[in-house]
Every structure is written in C-alpha cells, then in structure tokens.
Amino acid sequence: RILSPPSDSDANGIMSRAKVLTIDTMNPTVKKVEYAVRGPIVQRAVELERELSEGMKKPFAEVIKANIGDAHAMGQQPITFFRQVLALCSYPELLSDSTFPEDAKSRACRILQSCGGNSMGAYSASQGIDSVRQDVARYIERRDGGVACDPDNIYLTTGASDGIVTMLKLLVCGEGTTRTGVMIPIPQYPLYSAALAELGAVQIDYFLNEEKCWSLDITELQRAVNEARQYCNPRALCIINPGNPTGQVQSRQCIEDVIRFAAKERLFLMADEVYQDNVYAEGCQFHSFKKVLFEMGPEYAETVELASFHSTSKCYMGECGFRGGYMEIINMDDEVKDQLTKLLSVRLCPPVPGQALMDLVVNPPQPGEPSYGSFIKERTATLSALAEKAKLTEQVLNTVQGISCNPVQGAMYSFPRITIPEKAVKEATEKGQQPDMFYCMKMLEETGICLVPGSGFGQKDGTYHFRMTILPPTDKLKILLNKVKEFHQRFTQQYS
Amino acid sequence: RILSPPSDSDANGIMSRAKVLTIDTMNPTVKKVEYAVRGPIVQRAVELERELSEGMKKPFAEVIKANIGDAHAMGQQPITFFRQVLALCSYPELLSDSTFPEDAKSRACRILQSCGGNSMGAYSASQGIDSVRQDVARYIERRDGGVACDPDNIYLTTGASDGIVTMLKLLVCGEGTTRTGVMIPIPQYPLYSAALAELGAVQIDYFLNEEKCWSLDITELQRAVNEARQYCNPRALCIINPGNPTGQVQSRQCIEDVIRFAAKERLFLMADEVYQDNVYAEGCQFHSFKKVLFEMGPEYAETVELASFHSTSKCYMGECGFRGGYMEIINMDDEVKDQLTKLLSVRLCPPVPGQALMDLVVNPPQPGEPSYGSFIKERTATLSALAEKAKLTEQVLNTVQGISCNPVQGAMYSFPRITIPEKAVKEATEKGQQPDMFYCMKMLEETGICLVPGSGFGQKDGTYHFRMTILPPTDKLKILLNKVKEFHQRFTQQYS
Ligand SMILES: Cc1ncc(COP(=O)(O)O)c(C=O)c1O
Ligand SMILES: Cc1ncc(COP(=O)(O)O)c(C=O)c1O
Q1: In this structure, are B287 and B430 located in the same domain?
Q2: Residue contacts between A and B (CB atoms, under 8 Å)
Q3: Does the pLDDT value for residue B3 go beyond 60?
Q4: Which of A22, A123, A332 comes nearest B320 by C-beta?
C-alpha cells in the first residue's frame, strides 16, 4: 500500500516534480477517442488561415472549409422569424417595439411564460421546458401523420450530440464477452465511434453498400451481429438517416426491415434523424423510424425500444451554435426513464436559448400569421439552393476520372470514392499517414480547400473517399469543385 | 459464446419480449449517481404545484422553491446591458435601432465578428470563440492584480458543470487500489459526488469545520489523504470557494496552505470559483487560487497543476439558462491539453449565446461608456440585496431554538444545523428515510417550502442540516424564514 505521495517530489525537490496528469496517467479511454471532423487537417487549415492573414504567400487566397456541416459559417442566413423571437426572449423590452410582427411576439411570450421568472436566464427542468416538449410532441404527430406522441417521452438536449451520448451511456454495461456492443454504420458520423471509445463499449461495424447508393442491407446487419456475438453483447443499433457522411435516404421498406431485424435480434434502436428536412433527390422521402414502427402494428409498436434524435443544427435553419435538440424515447422501461431523468439533472438543463429555438423549429409561423410568407420564402430558398448544390456536386465530381460520387439524396455532404495511385499510397504509408489523409492534406496545402478524409468516417479496406459539404454558396461551390477536379488530375498525374 | 439473441423472444413470441434496457441491464455507474438538488423533494414540490393549480386544498397558497441557486426564477432581473447585447447578437437588424446604446452595439459587433459567418448560429471553435477567450484572459489579469493569463489556457464550457466533469474525466484511471481518488469537501455541491460515481472514481471526503464557520483545516486534508492512500490513488483536490452549500469564504492564508498541501501530496487542484463575486461578510474577500499560486513564487507557480472554474449562472448576473462558463488551466501537460481539446471537439462547441454572455460578464461597460451607470446600479442593487438577505437569514435562523446557522459569508445559501428529536429520527429510520429528508418533506407538505436536506450534500454522521437559498425577494424571504421557524418549533414539539 502506498502511504505517501510518489517520492520524486521529496527526493529531487519540488521544482523537478513530475506532473500529476500526463499522457501516461490520464484516462485511457479518452486517449482512444478520435474525431476527424475537427482533426489534424482542420488544425492545419486554421494555421494556414493565420499564416495568410499574416501576409504569408500561399498558392491560394483563402481557406475554404468544406469539412463541417456548419451552414451559417458558410454564409447561410438565419430564418428572420426565429431570430426575432430570440431577440424578444433575450430582451423582453422589445415586446413593445411595433416593428416586430405579432406572431413573433406571441411566440416569445409563450416561451417566456414557461421560463422560471419569465427569463431565459433561469434553469429549466432538466428534461426541458414543458411547453417546448408539448410543441415537439405536436410537431412529431403532424410529421408522422397523426401517430400519437407523449410529451413525457421528449427530452430536450444540448444539440443532438448530447442526446446520442446520453443514450449510449445508459446502454453500456458488462465486461469481456458480455460487454455492450453497439452497431454503427460504416461510414459513420464519428461522434458514434468517439462516444463508444470513451464509454469503453464495443463498436460493431456494419457496412453501407456503396455500389447501391450507400443503402443498408439486412444481410450485412445479420453478418455483423452474428460475428459480434462471438466477442460482445450487441444491444443497440444506430442508424443515420438521411446519412452523414454518405447522403443516402432510406426507403420505407428498408426501415421496416431494420425494425424487424432489431426486434428479432433484441436491439435498442437509435435513429439519428437530424437531417430529416434535408431530402433533395426525386423519389426520395423522409420516413421517421417512429412512424414506420407504429404503422407495423402493436407487435412492434409496443415492444421495440427506440430513441430518435433531432437538432436545430441542420435542415433549413442550420443553427448549430445554439446547441438545441431533442430526443424522443419509445418503449423505454419506466425505471430506466427515471434513471435517465436523474442523470440529466446533474447537468442541470440544456441551454434555454437552444430550447427556445427548438420550439420555433417545431412550431414555425402558420398560414394566416404575419410571418408565414417570409418564413416559407426563406426556408424554400435555402432548401432549393441545397438541392441544387447537391446535384451540382454529384455532377461535377462524376466528370473527374478517378472520382465517383453517389447521388447526394439528402443531408449536406458528398462522399465520393477516389482512386489514389499506388505510388501515392506508398508515400503515405511511409509517412505513417492514411492515403486519403495524405491526399486531403496535399489538397489543403495546394488549394486551401479543407475536406475530411474518408478514413475519419470509416470505409471498406482499400477504398478511399473524402467528405465535402455542399454548403458553400453556389458560385463558391463551383470554384471549389473545379479546384478539386484540377487537384485530383494533378495528383493522379504526379503519382502515376 | 452466445450466438443468437437471448431466447425469450423466440420461446414466448415477440409480444412478451423483455426489454433490451432495464434497470438490471443498464449502466451500473449511472445507477450510483445521486443529485439531491433536483431529487425526490423537488419532484414532490412540482407535484404540489400542479395539485395547487388544479384547485386542490393545501395548508399553503404557493410552493416556494428555495432549493436551487436559480436567481432569475426567484425574480432577480437580468442586467439590461447583457440582454441588449444578446438581442443585438440574435437579431443584428437591431444594430440600426437608435434606442440601443452604442456600447451595446459595439460589443455585439465584436462578438459577431468572431462568429463564423457573423452568426451565433455557427459552431465556434471547440475551445470557445477566440475573442471571448482573450477577454476572459484580460478579466483574469485585472481580477488577479496583473498576474498574466494566456488565452490558450482558457476553455469556454457549457456552464461550469461541463468544465468540472470534463476535468474529472481526464483524471480518472487505474483499478483497485490504484484507482483515481478525488478529494471533495463535505458538505459538497453534489455535482462532484455524482460525476465521481458516474466515472467510477473514488470519492475522498474531507470535512469542513462547522465549528469554525465551515473553514478548511489542513490537518483534516492530511487525515483524509493519508487514509485514502490505503485504498486508492488520490490525484485531485477539489475546493469550492466561496462555498456551496456552506457559504464560507476562504482566507488567503488557507488558500496558500492548500496549495502547499497539494504540491506536497502531488494533487491536481480544482478550484470551483463560480461564486467569486458573491462575498458579503465584512472582512471577507475573494482570493483566486490562481493569484495566490502565482504570488507564492515559481516553485509553486510553475509546477502546481490547477483548473479553476467560473460560470455565468451565479454572482450578480444569475444567467443559469444560458449555460455559459469557462475554465482556466495552469501547468497542464501539453499532451494532455491536446487530448482535452480533442475530447471537447466531439461535442462540437459550448452554446454560443452562453459564450457571448460570458464575454459580457468579463468585459462589462467601462467608465465613460453610455451603459456604465445603469450597469453599476443594477449590479450593486443585486449584490447589496444578496448581502442583506445573507445577514437576515443568519439572524432569523439563529433566533430559533434547535437551529444554528453559521454566517453566510458568501455564495447564495445558508446551511444551518438542525436538532431533530430522537422520536423523529426513529420514525424516519423506520420509513427508510434520512432524518433530514423526513424533516424537509414534512416542511414541504405543511408549508410549501422546498429546501434540500443536508444529507444530499454530505454531513458529519449524526448531524442534520438543510440548505436554503437566500434568493427569494426580501419580503418573501422574511415570510419564508418565519414559516421555517414556526415549522421547526411545531416539529420539535410534535416529536418531543
Ligand atoms: C448525423 C449527425 N448526428 C448528430 C450531429 C450532431 O449535431 P448537433 O450536436 O449540432 O445537434 C451531427 C452533426 O453534424 C450529425 O451529422
Ligand atoms: C459550486 C458550484 N459549482 C458549479 C455549479 C454549476 O453551475 P453551472 O453549470 O450552472 O455553471 C454550481 C451550481 O449551482 C455550484 O453551486
């Protein structure tokens, strides 16, 4: 038993005392966490921006960050109505300002009346403001063609990220071969792998089918779960629909099959539906897991455990900085629900401005209200521009030899496959870099374009990709796509 | 090896399928979490409020929640300047509104210029907005009489809670007798015990000295760490100053002694300074750990690892709902810092409105600026009212036989010791309740006053306390204190 502190402090004097917290003595699960969307390539991009601003010469005039789904940062304008209500909630003296529309004022009053002391500065209930949860429930009912939604099943969150991590946290238990395993798509949004690493859960990969437009095959799910049962206890299945980074939109049939699979294999379903309004391709439509589940009848509707996630960060509003979101939880055991509420209470509450914004997203201006016209106009403009950019991206990328890009059916990203010449793969390997990281780093240094290598999301061995957002304004996106094209051709030539 | 899902689904048909996630199969560390500030007593208070609103007869007309440090919920008004800037940032069209003061506009412009796309809707850097971190650093330098502060050491957080949990997370490692132990004061703010339970770290209690006004004795720290070395690896020491729930303000000498102790015992220091502006008692003054550390010379200033925490939730602003906060980190190993940044990046960023608010707190109106006068007036009014209420609370409670209350030197709470008659202790025990929980529940049912029992914060065995905020408006506080007095007398009589 150690009865005194480690002794180098005594022996060598305090000045040479080793640090308490070092890379060798820190939490080992934290070390395993990786998060490519803000990884080394983005750090280099920030450096390059600083170098440019300090007048250093570069082969490009600006860094274009197409690495993250951050719409406002790319110039998208916020919805006027949302911001009016937020201003009114922040500074209620404005309620007597006649330039604000009446519907904005009435929304603001409703939100403030549900806040302690009528102030966004009060903590809310840990599960979120009651009236916001009610509005979310009504939104879900409308969205799902009348399928009932109980506000008690709604939990407001600090962005969808918070909800996802919290649900995963509840699910983790066991050791060794009974350790919780969680199935995630590959390619995935790296929040999932990061959270699983931190929680010490087992990541079970199922591969999306790139040849079939990144669709989900039940046979692949079956393969993955069968293999995983050899070494862990698979307990949850995560689906991202529409997909990030892959941009596919799941068919209704496929969702039904997934639900049946989850029921058969006894898996808790987690449906990440933060891109539910981002569907562009003709013939594609968003179907919520909740709706499909309930349409499958009580055998499923009353048994399959489902958590679904939404956020203020994506869709047409793109309000990432407010960290708003919610999760809906279906068929969760009552005792576990109590534990969830308790766990959330430790962090006190999600940010109230984010809750207010979530309220506006689920309860936007209605026909007949003064702000309805401008709201619809702004929303439509943003979504049509995204649809156009989705198409443009796919088209231009597919003109490049050595790049092949599935249709961007939804979400905000293209995830094209790229051919990397042998010689480049070899050079990367010698550098200890993933070949697509090598490729993206080179692109960044030569063109100023910041993308995320496919290896950050996971991909089939021997295939290479990058993820590029479709968010830059159309004219900038065109320039960007052309630069990517030229770079790819140059790179291919250089390493052939 | 399990090769198929647990079989009750097959044997009994899907309808009777047991749940995937139950109290027995959920994360066991989550089950261990407790958080009294929002525990059963608060749930009952919410129920009572609903019953009242439904017209049910009660021995009181309203529920008064003195359980949580939530100033706005208790009627405290926000600082006008802060809310003006937030409204401007939310809806920048207001920048052309001549009714807003120029200094509010220039602050809003500065914040927006540091946001991606000039919008609070963009994700910020994970560590927080650069210019806000710079403002925080300058604030700390002013506060600490010129001791240097590097913005690179500042991390903006989602309330102080987020920073505290994140730091604890980094520190946890080892198993069995090498498992990380963390020293926390008893009584404590229960975020600490909750986070340690969830992380599976060992909680090491050191007791504050109630007889000496809840002061901190180094001999008690020494006792605690010596004993703990028998069964774990003590790595961190948490201090809450000014204290929650205990309201004491640490002397400069004591802080120096604590730092020396941490250096000697090789402990990472965590200083929770969210109440740094809440100091009321004459002769008391807030001293930051950072300042004292640097005044102790390089032997300490260059070696002792320190994280200190601040928040927008307390002090004179009380903006809890915005979830703003920061931590400053001193002498942290560079590699660990990289790991910290990476870990934070998974959650993308703290809420931007909370960051903006933090910026205003550290960079309020200056002499000569148009809003300076009203800012000072509002701040002074709030802080003087708090000082008055701190005194009032102590005085009234000390008139009650069987209640004894230390001076409320700082923070927002009184934590009086209460005598609970033997008979009441017995009845509580039979009910399986802590005696002070029994007492507080009874008070809630009879008077509508919602307090938190001392057992939720920890206390010496055989002593009982409750925590009561000093936040209700003065007239309401007087009524409340009288009701507490009457209740205590009735309770004592009933059980004597
Ligand atoms: C699939 C997916 N889920 C969740 C998130 C988290 O978003 P937020 O936490 O901002 O709501 C993102 C963000 O990009 C995402 O792409
Ligand atoms: C001592 C102490 N630390 C930290 C916190 C967390 O506050 P927040 O997360 O709202 O900043 C509180 C809240 O009451 C507290 O009392």
Answers
A1: no
A2: 334
A3: no
A4: A123
